[in-house]
Amino acid sequence: MSIDWKDYDAKNFFDELIGENTLPRPPALRLMQHLQSLDESELEARRQMAEVTIQEMGVSFTVYTEQGNIDRAWPFDIIPRTISTQQWKKTAAGLKQRLKALNMFIGDLYDQQQIIKDGIIPEHIISKSKNFRPECVGIKPVHGVWAHICGTDLVRDGDGEFYVLEDNLRVPSGVAYMLENRAITKRVLPELFDKEDIKPVDDYPARLFDTLVALSPREIKRPEIVVLTPGIFNSAYFEHAYLAQQMGTELVEGSDLLVAEDDCVYMRTIAGLERVDVIYRRIDDLFLDPEVFEKDSVLGVPGLMRAWRAGNVALANAPGAGVADDKVVYAYVPEIIRYYLKEEPLIKNVKTYLCEDPEQRQYVLDHLAELVVKPANESGGYGMLIGPHSTKKEQAEFAALIKADPRNYVAQPTLRLSTAPTLVGKGCLEPRHLDLRPFVLQAKESYVTTGGLTRVAMKKGSLVVNSSQGGGSKDTWIVNGRNADAV
User: Fold this and answer.
1) What is the pTM of this model?
2) Residue 65 confidence class, pLDDT cut points 50, 70, 90
């Protein structure tokens, strides 16, 4: 028995695959036709194949709990999400524009701070930012780029347009899962890759490698590049190891590196010390160098900032880039784009209320039951209030938090996040809310993944897509072809 799509109801949300009258959207037409040709037992067999593949490939993530760190298999839904090539070209252009402006902004903050002098952004927004690093003032990274790897979270509202929900410029994660999602889907639905022109994503490791090579302080044929990880207990360790293996670079911990008297970084090897040119660091700023930041950090490398400041090693992303990762700064990004590029933003922000502004703060306090309230520098879905799903007690607690530290909170309308069909039982497809994290690279040139990591709120009605909060994932298809002209 095949699936009856007449029973599928997205409840007036914009659905990525299904349009009006339960008809497939143009980019999803061949996918939907194929799914309709599969009966329930075939679809279930594909789902089980995905689970086995995930176990075989060892795709996992770590959740931190009171009981300790728990390794879990990657939660995956086999029904891909489709986007037309035409729309993706516009989206990719907007992502490149955004990262270019943000890099100019970060460089300005650690140099002349002209944007503050010109009154575009208030000085206290930066001085009170938890991620502004005075230690970085005066440093000028190669190509003027601070954030080389960015994971930008996009959402679709009820109008079907993409909006930027937030920028991730410190140590953005998730790209390995994007790549593994594609590998799993190729095993589960191989026949569709023969019939459909699906844009590839597997060039990302090569693109990342080229980006890192372009940062090398030495003009040599093969610069030494390493991936610096906090270690096996980090939630993203799977990704650190995966990317190092895919790029053919060394995966190192802080204890594997040292800074010598010549202010160069060296890696300890069985053949002796080997100079390192570029470090793709997956460690937060404050743990990078105990000489400069957290004195008791055993994750970083003493003297690393000294070597970076001397221009003897490149760090991606650069320390201090997180100043533009602040959700209060996010509200100013459209003005930042206009200021530096003299262009209108190609992708809009979600409307954002700044709690530090008395008038906006009062509106937020009066409408907590309707809004999503976020702390300025948390990630992973932690520390948020989702108004429509909150209790009076939770709203009162957040009101107190906002009044105590208004600069640290922003609020946004509760979005009508788009949905996509998700397999929730044998032959049973239901709509689940999702977002999208494409990855943008910038060095001498810029690059955007064709698609990204689609994260899915696996719980019915939930708007929280983070894997640490019970979310899952699915493959993202940028589809080129005669049926892919529309959304």
Assistant:
1) 0.93
2) very low
